[in-house]
Amino acid sequence: MRREFLTIVSVAFISMFVGASLYYLAPLPKFTELNTASAVVDTAPEKIIQTIPFDVLDVGIHAAGVAVRKNYAAYSREGLEKIWEIAHGTDGPPLPKVDFSKEYVIGIFAGQKSTGGNSAVVTAVTEAENMRTVAVTLTKPGAGCMVTQSLTNPYQIVTVPFSDATLTHSDTEIITSCE
Fold first, then answer.
1. Could you please report the per-residue DSSP string of 9-34?
2. What count of Cα atoms within 13 Å lies in the side-chain half-sphere of residue 107?
3. Domain extents for the chain?
4. What is the chain's pLDDT, residue by residue, as a tens digit (179 residues)?
5. What is the pTM (predicted TM-score) of this model?
6. 101 C-beta neighbours (distance < 10 Å), count
7. I want to staple 165 with a disulfide (CB 3.0 to 4.6 A). Which of 7, 75, 98, 132 is the partner?
């Protein structure tokens, strides 16, 4: 058995030596210089991604009126009233002032969760090629986390500068490690 072990170690050592020798001693491939006169130049403009500022109007963990993951955009006071009611029910805090000629409101709702430790936040808003993307991070507790044993419904409401761009979102889910 010892002889088999020594044979395997010897073969492995010789293989590594031969491989390293071939790698370091082999001739390098030849490269030719690019002839700029005949080179094809891509004139298409690069996709420009613009970061859009946003302000948080409200954040919480007990939205009153939506049980599933949803996003809403409000372009008028009436729309804001609906989002505010989804977040707070009929007896919430006063409606914030929003200048809808310059900005609009986005409400993100994570949906009903069976425990505490969950959150939903807008982490970035970007715009490229007439497409505005709201990046949403949904955080939930991992195994072993001490959390409240009550239903929660995380949400966040933000304002963004007005745009005619099509609105979309991307969700990132993060599991909090508590070990």
1. HHHHHHHHHHHHHHHHHSPPPP----
2. 26
3. 50-176
4. 666 665 665 655 566 555 545 444 444 333 333 333 334 445 556 778 999 999 999 999 999 988 899 999 999 999 999 999 999 998 889 999 999 999 999 999 999 999 999 999 999 999 999 999 999 999 999 988 899 999 999 999 999 999 999 999 999 999 988 87
5. 0.72
6. 6
7. 132
